[in-house]
Amino acid sequence: MKSIEACDLVRTFNGFIAVENLSFSVEEGEIFGLLGPNGAGKTTTIRMLSALLSPSSGRAVVGGYDVHEDALKVREIIGVLTESPSLYGRLTALENMEFFAKAYGVTNKSTRDGKIHELLDLFQLWDRRDDHVGQYSKGMRQKLAIARALIHSPEILYMDEPTSGLDPKSSKDIRDLMEELTENQHQTILLSTHRLEDAEKLCDRVLIINKGRPITVATPGDLRKRFGSGQEVQVGLTQLDEDLVDMVKMLPSVVNLTANKDDKLLSVSLGSEKDTPSLVRALVEYGVGVRYVKPIETSLEEAYLELMEEEQ
Ligand SMILES: Nc1ncnc2c1ncn2[C@@H]1O[C@H](COP(=O)(O)OP(=O)(O)OP(=O)(O)O)[C@@H](O)[C@H]1O
Ligand SMILES: [Mg+2]
């Protein structure tokens, strides 16, 4: 079943087109990434799908509800982590959670207490529940903001740049939490990010947008295949000297080459995957032993940068 369906969404601000004809859908239980450079229209899209900003044209259906006609219902079934979430610094974590739980209509005290405990535990904040949030670190605040977004057990979670400004460990914690949410609770997540590492590790599919326009929707794996140029291989050899490097450089299929003489390693960019056997043959004919040949996958980052270059 589809959790989100956006159809020809457009948003203009005084004639400036921030989002242009955006159509995509997100399946239930999927982590769907919205990727694009600064100003691409990610936050504007999330705000439209949150029923906080009305589309100039087009429509979107979230959890079966139209963002325009059933705005209140949409807001009930979504949880949102905004770009700069505001928490009450003078209140403790527990008080913040209680405040937002009540605001979201979690009125039954035992349900509320149970949910708050469960979430603060999940985010490893239970022991710090009585600290004032003003004294929290950025990573702790971000975790609390995500916990808050989940307080009413939303069907769909939107996260706008959840790991921005966080150190590698906190970023990983948040990625792990997102994985746990989808795996154990089948949570649907729409994630906006420019951290390609996050998108690569987490997303089932990503939509790349630039200047408000959709560029492509694909799995991270497909993107790497489609936009990674040629094939990169690492070759471990039994010996490596300057003559051998020159010989490999002269091979017609070799686009680029770096040699590490100490470790007897060659990193070779080939025109395509099909060129690998001819490279190995040439090395064997030269009389050098090939210890191993390892294909290096193009990262999503390389694919993304290449795609953005094409778009310029
Ligand atoms: N309320 C607004 N009034 C005028 N222009 C706006 C408004 N909100 C967004 N924009 C413009 O729309 C464009 C898209 O902005 P948006 O915040 O959606 O980008 P983004 O992809 O989230 O960028 P970032 O990665 O920097 O967060 C930008 O050019 C921005 O200036
Ligand atoms: Mg943004």
Poorly predicted parts? none
Task: Provide the list of bound ligands, each named once.
Answer: adenosine-5'-triphosphate, magnesium ion
**Biggest pleated-sheet summary:** 6 strands, mixed
Order of helices and strands: EEEHEEHEHHHEHEHEEHEHEEHEH
CATH architecture title of the largest domain: 3-Layer(aba) Sandwich
Superfamily (CATH H level) name of the largest domain? P-loop containing nucleotide triphosphate hydrolases
Number of individual domains: 2
**Helix run count:** 11
Strands, total number: 14
Task: Please tell me about this protein's structure.
It is a single chain. Helix 3 crosses helix 4 and helix 8 packs across helix 11. The strands form three sheets. A six-stranded mixed β-sheet has the order 6-7-8-3-9-10, with helices on both faces. It is α/β, with parallel strands linked by helices. The chain folds into two domains: 2-218, P-loop containing nucleotide triphosphate hydrolases (Rossmann fold), CATH 3.40.50.300; 230-297, Alpha-Beta Plaits. It is 38% helix and 29% strand. The model has no long low-confidence stretch (mean pLDDT 91). Bound molecules: adenosine-5'-triphosphate and magnesium ion.
